Amino acid sequence: MKQPKISQGMIKALRKKLVEAMPKLIIYECLLMYLTNSPRLYNLLTTAAKLGPSIECPTPYEISKVCLEDEYKIMQSWINELKPTWKESGVTIMCDGWTNSINHMHIMNFFVYCSKGMVILKSIDASNVASKNVDYYLKLLDKVMEKVREEYVIQVVIDNETTLKFSSLKLMKKSLSLLVFIWICAWKILRKDLHLKPKRLLRAKSFGIKAINIIKAFVPIVKVLKLLDGDEISNQR
């Protein structure tokens, strides 16, 4: 049996009802406005329309316990699919701290970035840490490096906190693979050319020569770009 066609007038009337209902959910439940652009919301609406009004919404318990556990497993599976890429082309570890100006809660987030995507590796509440010194940050970075596997890490990107800077310098001295931090712009070209894994690439005799040649090629380009941007025009005059 064919479904009756819906006229344009009826579509407008139905959409008006949706437009009236949606803001009430977002405003009174304190949700973000751009939720309306989410493909997940569209998926929810289409699924609900297919099932009909007789199917009840999931309970808070189902969402917080059952569904959350399922989503966690799906996310872990996706991260495991990324890990072969970590081994193949290396990763960037990014560290960023954030302090709440009201309650002074200090959160540190560690991200792992590779060519196929970025994941939050871990988030640490450092609010109650009495001394956030160089050794403290060094231990954190060490644990992250160990979790990812040191040989996969090409570079570590940090924020401007002075203590964290000194910690990263200590980490660079401790880990040979982090010397690639200096040559990061040339990394893909070098690895593709030499067909070596991160640590072997660093020990290759031709690595330094090729890296220097690439940097020599980049320096004039950077100077020209700065001139075009006006960064050095005043100095040239």
Automatic annotation (TrEMBL):
Pfam families (alphabetical): DUF659
PANTHER family, per database record: OS09G0499600 PROTEIN, OSJNBA0013A04.12 PROTEIN
Lineage: Eukaryota, Viridiplantae, Streptophyta, Embryophyta, Tracheophyta
Protein name (database record): DUF659 domain-containing protein
Species, as recorded: Mucuna pruriens
Domain DUF659: 58-182
Taxonomy, superkingdom: Eukaryota
